[in-house]
Amino acid sequence: MEKVMGAPIEYRSAREAREHFKDILDAADDGRPATVTRDARRVAAVDADRLVHFLTRIRPSGAEAVAENDGWSIFIPGLPVAADGTTLDEAVAEMIDALRDYAEEWADHLRLAPNHADNWGLVQIVALSSDDQLRDWLLG
């Protein structure tokens, strides 16, 4: 494939993509579409920060924080993830840890469970975000 500056790039095999790996990274860094086809399946390379920014805008956390007698609880409706803390900051920090644990479990086996399969976007947010980005997303 001939490379045209500023244009999307597409490689039709993993071998071809390996030979042009720098071009793929450059395109992703520039925000241009960069795809690789392998076994009739197309994969895209994207800038992780741009992806997180986009995903967090279209998928707000919906987290709910509840003050209780001796602290705070935080949860995201519809997810089997919750956390508690004596302060809101502590509850949020615990929630970030719980979300990271969930993302690991999702990648390991939950992605195959019908009631968890649609959480791909959430897992991308969690896996690609810093703790500060997740804190901002949770507190929205």
Q: How many strand segments? A: 6
Overall average pLDDT? 93
**Helix amount:** 40-55%
Which sequence of strands runs across the widest sheet? 1-2-3
Low-confidence stretches: none
* Secondary-structure element order, N to C: EHHEEHEEEHHH
**Radius of gyration of CA atoms, rounded to a whole number:** 19 Å
Count of DSSP H/I helices = 6
- Judged by helices, strands and strand pairing, the structural class is alpha+beta
Shape: elongated
Distance from N terminus to C terminus (CA atoms, Å) equals 43 Å
The biggest sheet amounts to:
3 strands, mixed
Strand content: 15-25%
What does this structure look like?
- The protein has 140 residues and is an alpha+beta fold.
- The protein is 47% helix and 19% strand.
- It has six helices and six strands, in the order βααββαβββααα.
- The strands form two sheets. A three-stranded mixed beta sheet has the order 1-2-3.
- The mean pLDDT is 93.
Describe the secondary-structure layout.
Elements: E1 9-11, H1 14-19, H2 21-30, E2 34-38, E3 41-44, H3 48-58, E4 64-68, E5 71-75, E6 82-85, H4 88-108, H5 120-128, H6 131-139
Parallel strand pairs: 1-2
Antiparallel strand pairs: 2-3, 4-5, 5-6
